[in-house]
Every structure is written in C-alpha cells, then in structure tokens.
Amino acid sequence: MGLTSSALIAHTTNLDLVIRHVLAGLGQGIHAGRERGSGVEFSEYRAYAPGDEWRRVDWKLLARADRYYVREAERDSHVALWLVLDASASMMEPSRSIPGLDKLAYARTLLACVAAIAQRQGDAFGLVVLSGGRVQFTPAARGPRQLQRVLAKLNAAQAEGELPDAATLKSGLRFADAPALVFAASDFLDFPSPLSEALLRLRHMRHDVRLACIQTEAECTGGFDADPAYRDPEVDGGVFRFGSDLREGYLRNREAHFATVTAACRAGDVPLVNARIEQAPGEVLRQWLRPHLHQAGRR
Asked: Residue 105: CB partners within 8 Å, gap ≥ 6?
C-alpha cells in the first residue's frame, strides 16, 4: 500500500485522484468538538427529518426498527484550519527508490488530504505557502470551491529559494488573532528558524499546532550515492560529495539536529510526526489527525 500510494503521488498531478486513493477507508476527522453536525466522528442517532441527506441514513437500523434514523456526529465548526507548506528549495529532495517522488509532492499530498477532510466536515480552511523568501496566503473559507482553490495553489507550488525571514512571516501569518488548528509540513533542516519560531509562538498563543517532518529514506539512513557531487539548493556556492567515509559523521550530525527539533517541539507542547516519503501517506495522516491533549488543556 505504501509503495502504491507513493508511486501514485509521483506519477500524477491530479490531487483529487490522490486524495480519493489516500483517504479511502481512513474514516477519521480532524478534531473533536462539541457541536453536532455531519462530521465523521459518530455521536448518536436521531429520527430522520425532511432535508437530511440520504447518505446519513442508517439502513441496518431501518431494517430492525422500521423507521428512518440518521447518524449524528460531533464537530467544532468555529475553529479555522490552516495548512502551512514549506516549499523552500530543500523540499525538492527526491526519493532514491521511487522515481518522480520528492518531499514537496509528498507534503503537498498530506496537506491536500487534510483540506479535503476539512471541507467534508464543513470547516473553514486556508493555505500558507512559503517559497523563495515569500509568503503566499490564501484566506480561509468553506466549501467545494475553496477546496479546489487550495488544491490549485498546492499544485502550483514550486520548491525554490529559502524560507521567509521573521518579519515577512509575521506579516504573512494573518490568522494569529483567531483560534486556529495549524498543520505545517516541512523538512525542518533549517532549525531553529523563523518558521519554527513562528509555529512555536502560535502554540504559545493557544493555537493547536501540529507538525509533520518530511524526510526521504536516504536522508534517514545516509543511503546517498557516492559518485555524484551535491550542491546545497538553498546556499550559493559549495559542491559536496558523499562517500562511505562520511556516512557515520553525517548520521551523527543528523541525529543531533533532529534531537534538537524533537526537544523543542516537546518543550513547546507541539506534536511532531516524522514522515518518510516512501511510506503510505495514510499512515502519516492517522498520526497527524489524532487528537492531542495539550499540556495547556490539562492545567
């Protein structure tokens, strides 16, 4: 399933198709609130009323009770949902085992699936794309047209340049004054950074912030080819090679770097999901969408 899903991401730009494939059987909502509606988290039955959608009728209960009942759910429609995509140059890093797949395509897919679930739940959702030192902001809205608008922006995102600086990010994250649920996908190779500081600041402001750290299998294991030369896509100048003699030092430095990332997220009470682009997106989404009991909520 993982290989099939990742290969599909690599070979199509049709996000609608990818979303249907990934979300098939996922059956999970984004948040658990206390307002009854048509979300996917089941709450109770109630008698059918004119205007209810037929797809919500429980046909098995009809056979037993000889009456129409619809399934109700609980959701919170007052919290806007924001998708944050790191589209800096390092996100063009490709998979070494799945041709055509890179970190940006995988991150784009995860965020597209979250947007589709938000649309199904009737939530308002918006998009922030960080690329080339700029912030591309799509205001939050509801409905199928908003989903198509966000998918088009995700599809158009190109991995280039560096992340925006602190001042640009502060002016670009325009949702900070209202309650928000924030899903941010990045490789977090630049850490600490203006992006990480902005996300931790949003959590400090009591927003629900969830991060996905996007990596390749080769990055995690040091499985790079020894022959080619590599250039840092975000820094001018400098060509590097990667040989077996450098692998141990690379893995040691990498472990130290991501230990810092994990510790900062834990200290800031921000859930962090590590994702390798070769694994099934559905597995990552299940972890990412799982409700989290933040420290602030337990005080």
From this structure: 9, 10, 277
**CA atoms lying within 13 Å on the CB side of residue 163:** 25
One-letter amino acid for residue 53 of the chain: E
State mean pLDDT over 249-278.
95
Q: What is the CATH number of domain 2-31+78-289?
A: 3.40.50.410
Cβ 6 vs Cβ 106: under 8 Å? yes
Torsion angles phi and psi, residue 7, rounded to 5: -65, -35
Which pTM value belongs to this model?
Answer: 0.78
Cα 18 from Cα 89, distance rounded (Å):
24
Residue ranges per structural domain of the chain: 2-31+78-289, 35-75
CA atoms of 188 and 215, how far apart (whole Å): 9
- The single residue listed with the structure tokens 């990055």 is 219
Q: Is 228 helix (H, G, I), strand (E, B) or coil?
A: coil
pLDDT value of position 34: 40
Residue type, 298: R
Q: Which two tokens stand for residue 243?
A: 């040989």
For residues 39 and 288, give the distance between their C-alpha atoms in angstroms, rounded to a whole number. 18
197-242: per-residue pLDDT in tens?
Answer: 999 999 998 899 999 999 999 999 988 776 655 566 666 655 566 6
Angle of helix 15-23 versus helix 103-121 axis, rounded to 10: 70
Distance CA 288, CA 239 (A): 36
Encoded tokens for 83: 């998708």
- DSSP annotation of 88 reads S
Rounded-to-integer distance, Cα 109 and Cα 239, Å: 31
